[in-house]
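We modelled the chain as a single entity of 297 amino acids. Its sequence is:
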Amino acid sequence: MRAVLIGYARLMRPANLPTAAADILAGLAISGALFTAGSFNQELLPQVLLLVVSTVLLYAGGVVLNDVFDLETDLVERPERPIPSGLIPRSAAAIFGGSLLIGGILASYLANPVSGLVALALAVAILSYDGFSKKYAFLGPLNMGICRGLNLLLGISVAGVFNELWYCIIPILYIFAITLISRGEVHGNNKGHILWAAVLYAIVLLCVIYVVTVYAQDIGLGLIFSLLFAFLIYRPLFRAYKENSAGNIKKAVMAGVISLIVLDASLAIGFAPLWYAILILLLWPLAILLSKIFAVT
């Protein structure tokens, strides 16, 4: 029984779940509804908690169903995973993943109907990636990026309205880059993808610096967050390009995924007090700790 429970936990990629929560917290800050005249709007706390629960359920459901769809591939490339190893039946994993998605949609709807619609759109995008688009070189990364963009939008929708929608482009570009890098995770030899990812990373970084310099109360602190983000994503990327092995590529992907938290904190500091950005940043060591126990990809 213990092995089965651990198997279900492995399917949900626990190390990645804090990154989904960070998206919501960043979206809340961008919305402008969470902080009014510099003060925290405590009336929104129930909605905040519901949206965090929602995103965790949606993300977990998405990665579980991804493994359900990938069974044939994983039997060859990743036979140690819970489903191809026989630890978790495919049908049971499908029910589990579907239930998580439904729970995520319901939690968002309880926050407010607009958030419920965003969560429904996110669930459709997740299923589209899992079951169809990931097979395609361009459509797959784009679809994955859209999932993250919708996740940020889920946080922005906390007050039932959409403000500053252009910010959703940032996670779309960022996740597009990470998904490109991941194309060499098994066999290596993806220097072309890494170069394109480096360009997309640069665009994302410029967007973050723009937000910090235009909106942050303390530009210096905001730039420190931005520099930390740049260091965390580019260092493993350069190593993966220099030595284009599957192991280094996997490390670059893992660093990119976990550094989403630093990206979200860097965006949040433009719209929220320093303590709030630090609160988001505290999810980063949690994700790193979980990544030592559970696989990120």
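As a brief sanity check on the tokenised model: The longest helix spans residues 45-69. The domain at 2-291 is CATH 1.10.600 (Farnesyl Diphosphate Synthase).
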